[in-house]
């Protein structure tokens, strides 16, 4: 059975549906959505780094978590590991072209998060106050303006 180019394209698209549990694209999204992955990519965007440098520059990252994250990124082809024969052995990590291609998305997400924090903090405050009022632990609920999202109307969904 010969398929048209359009049919082949549709089959390839159906094969990678991130909404499906066992889709490889979903597994990749789960990997790259980790906060540690994002922080490592942002650090490596500045150039190659040693493991110890990354640990110092990413507060809260344990040696085990950082090693696991770097191995995962290396497996997915986003990071390459360079070993230099010395005592002790020097290990440097660097973004691959595929990893660099992901930086635009990571920078966009970082910029969105930084710009959106005032609205997120306001939403959290409103949610927590309403939850406290419903549970009876708070007698007053602050009035939150209905226009709280107006500062972000320029952002396309």
Descriptive key words:
mainly alpha; three-stranded antiparallel sheet; single chain; 157 residues; 3 strands
What does this structure look like?
By secondary structure, the chain is mainly α. The protein has helices spanning 5-15, 24-32, 35-44, 51-57, 63-75, 97-135, and strands spanning 49-50, 79-84, 90-95. Strands 1-3-2 form a 3-stranded antiparallel β-sheet. Strand 2 (79-84) and strand 3 (90-95) form a beta hairpin. It is flat and about 65 Å long.
What order do the helices and strands come in, and which of them pair?
Layout: H1 5-15, H2 24-32, H3 35-44, E1 49-50, H4 51-57, H5 63-75, E2 79-84, E3 90-95, H6 97-135
Antiparallel strand pairs: 1-3, 2-3
**Spatial arrangement of strands, main beta sheet:** 1-3-2
Shape: flat
Distance between the termini: 41 Å
Q: Biggest sheet: strands, sense, closure?
A: 3 strands, antiparallel
Structural class: mainly alpha
Short synopsis of the structure:
The chain is mainly alpha-helical and 157 residues long. It contains six helices and three strands; from the N terminus they run αααβααββα.
């Amino acid at each position: 059975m010969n398929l048209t180019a359009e049919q082949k394209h549709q089959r390839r698209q159906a094969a990678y549906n991130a909404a499906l549990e066992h889709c490889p694209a979903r597994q990749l999204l789960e990997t790259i959505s980790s906060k540690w992955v994002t922080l490592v990519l942002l650090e490596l965007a500045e150039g190659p780094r040693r493991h110890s440098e990354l640990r110092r520059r990413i507060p809260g990252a344990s040696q085990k978590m950082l090693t696991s994250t770097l191995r995962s990124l290396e497996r997915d082809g986003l990071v390459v590991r360079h070993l230099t024969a010395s005592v002790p052995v020097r290990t440097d990590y660097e973004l691959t072209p595929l990893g660099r291609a992901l930086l635009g998305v990571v920078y966009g997400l970082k910029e969105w998060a930084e710009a959106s924090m005032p609205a997120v903090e306001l939403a959290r405050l409103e949610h927590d106050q309403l939850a406290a009022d419903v549970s009876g632990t708070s007698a007053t609920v602050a009035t939150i303006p209905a226009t709280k999202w107006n500062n972000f109307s320029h952002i396309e969904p």
